[in-house]
Amino acid sequence: MKTLPILCLVTTLGLSIAPAAQQEGSPEAAKIAREGAQAAKDQDWNKAIERFRKASEMDRKFTASLALAYEQRAFSYANDQRFQEALNDLAEAIKIKPGDARAYEQRAAIEMRVNDYDKALADYEEAAKASPGEIKYRNYRAYIYETRGDVQNAMTENDAALKINGKNKEALDRKARLQKIISTNAVPSGTPVAAPPGTAATPKKP
Fold it and tell me: Which end of the chain has fewer CB within 10 Å, C or N?
């Protein structure tokens, strides 16, 4: 399976997290959150998470920043090929902020890197439920099924993608391939499979 290099993950971290520390509320919690934001800018993930956890215990509005800090540390781990630690951090982020399509997407991307496609399918489905108008999650699921030779499920996901955007080239190209396979009632040996749509197998920067 073709994979793409992991992109720079932290260049906008300070901008992503710092605004939450400026919100009104508990002055002490805000002070601690600012310390967390600075630690994040310095890529001191352990301190950032510890500070945001403490701030969120004092004021719940800082939980989103805590979840994001976990996501950022996960990307740092993934960049070092420490995939299990990255998966653990994304699990924590999802516990803190359920229904975050981005966290499910990132976890699925890492699961694809470690060839755990069943879990990747499940996480892309959760991402699709959280963001039903986003076509890429259906394309990712269709891609996984296609590489497995599961034509029926690949077509089901592909049709769901086309309902979101009937002009999507990735989905249209896949449909043509799948229809050809169905028409011949066999998967020809040596038939090339398309590369992952977008950066399905590469964690992205939050």
Answer: N
